[in-house]
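Exam revision sheet. Question 4 asks you to relate a sequence to its structure. Input first:
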Amino acid sequence: MKSIVPYLLSVCLLDLSARAASVTASPAPPGPPAAPEAAQPAAAVTLPDPVAVVEGDKIGRDELDNTLSKLLASRGRSVDALDPQQKLQGYRAVLDQMILQRLVKKRSAGVKVTDQEIDLGFSRIKARFPTEAEMNVQMQKSGETVQSIKDGIRSAIQQKKWIDSQIGDKGAVTEAEAQNYYDKNPAKFQMPEQVRASHILFAAPKDATPEVLAAKEKLARDILERIQKGEDFDKLAKEFSDDPGSKGSGGDLNFFSRAQMVPEFSDAAFRLKKGEVGGPVKTQFGYHIIKVTDRKGARTMPFVEVKERLVAFLGDQKRQNAVQTLLAQIREKADVKNYLAAPAPNGLRTP
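Answer key, structure tokens:
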């Protein structure tokens, strides 16, 4: 179920567009999802109260505990699954962000925000839910109200505007800078060989019986024979394919590289010449009939093709660096008393 909590927590990270989520950490590299954690007895960590005082403004024990719990819950995790050192590290990381949020919130309190800006932000939240009723249910579970969400949006916009005013044009990137990056990183602009293919999927669940698999394969072979006798591939895909994402377009999957598809599918598709039809090919999804409609050889994308995206990418990097510097300067000069114990060095667990 979709949740409002992650959005409101991103507010605490200073940027309505969630850009400030990268202020203190780089995104994790792509990879398989982590295995679910087994629930363990709650680990005992005693928090002082208050846990911090930010320029005279107290952050209480319960506020920190609730914030960490909501953050973990939004990611499908639980505080009870953490050992004492992990829990302390989690508290510390969340408290650091709360301190920064308080500091920026104080400095941005006078920034003007219009009702139209708040309404736009709220409409974006509503768009995350299929119905208003489902949103209301989730608000109730999260302990939020329409007013508390709008208050959070107002604060987030104030903070973003204030940060933008401090950063200025430090995120600007010239074409010369983009060209220099392009010239020094040629490997980043290599496009592998690609094919464009259409397919007809005869879906079979992973636990399908031999009888079901045999029936699916027979149907696939019957349809392949009809194609080979001259029937229209697109028409048969629209009629028989079990792939809802492509059947409406006659099974078209657009261009893809070898790495973008499961190996069995890619191996079969890349063996075919333009205009050829092959199959049935068995994958974890079932049986496929594949038709290759176009091919592209490996190439280096020219600068003109990537310039716009590259300028945006480098601009985001420069802005993130500028925000990091700004927040570090604010934190260094601020009157902050942090009473939370520091984690053990090198991530070592305490006895």
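Marking note for examiners. The two ends are 38 Å apart (CA to CA).
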